[in-house]
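Hi X.,

You mentioned you wanted examples for the new student's onboarding notes, showing what a folding record looks like when two proteins sit in one file. Here is a clean example. The first protein comes first, with its sequence line followed by its structure tokens.
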Amino acid sequence: MFRINRYRYIDTITHAPFDIFARKLEDAEEMAERINCMTQYKLRKKRIFFKKRMWTDIPPLELEQAQLATIKEWEDKLNVKN
């Protein structure tokens, strides 16, 4: 079992929660900023319970890389449409 932090962001338009799993706050903020720049989501930090420690079976680096790969796919699809 591995420890990782869950950072909860809220979309200001739909008020839907958006979780990012990262080891450091800087990494989570970078991912949220990339998502804000390319999609209609406008993510901001949740005021209460923003950071929570979680346990996972997936190594933290692999989990972060999977999230980054997904964001990269979204960016590539967006560039193809433009």
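Then the second protein repeats the pattern, sequence line and then tokens:
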Amino acid sequence: MRQAVGLMALLVFTAAPAALAAVPDLQEDRLATGPYSRMHMLLEKTVFAVDVLTVEVRFDSATQGRFRTLAQQHGDSEAFMGRMAEAAVHADEVFIRLEFKRDVALNRWVAAVRESLEKARHAGIIDESTFRHVSDNLPVWFHGIADRGFRYGDQILYRGYPDRLRTVLVTAEGKVLLDQTDAGTAPRLALLGGYFAPGTDFREPLIRSLLQS
């Protein structure tokens, strides 16, 4: 697997109110609609079940078709979950929306993402070089909010294509803080692997939401 090739990107980190930027069109209309096209979940952490963030995932029509075929073999076995997760990981096009339901420090979020990436590396979804590249650069890519962190209502929007991954961070007020594009297939695999590798907090809740819908 090729390592992600640098940043092709525009990073927008500004404090001036006049620098508001419109949320970009991420071409969601190119993705599938209807049954087996969408997943969603609420992530809760700590023994007090504190809401942390919501996750919405949308897929292309080819992946929707694979989900539909696999759903005919519906079950609760790990093998079935594995087949569904593999179909999700290898989607050519995907849209993911994270919305924060509480303030989260950047270093805490980076640590959680690294933990999920490690599971993706262990599962063979990404290789060691991709794991290191993404893990090492997360604080660099999000350096503009090192002091601010993520705040209630912030959204991270990911738009994956066959040859690139676009990442947009937007505040609850609609201010774009980050707009970045990374070339290659590895960034998309790293993103999806972090959600669908065995042992992540996201894999089973997301897959079950697809089946229940």
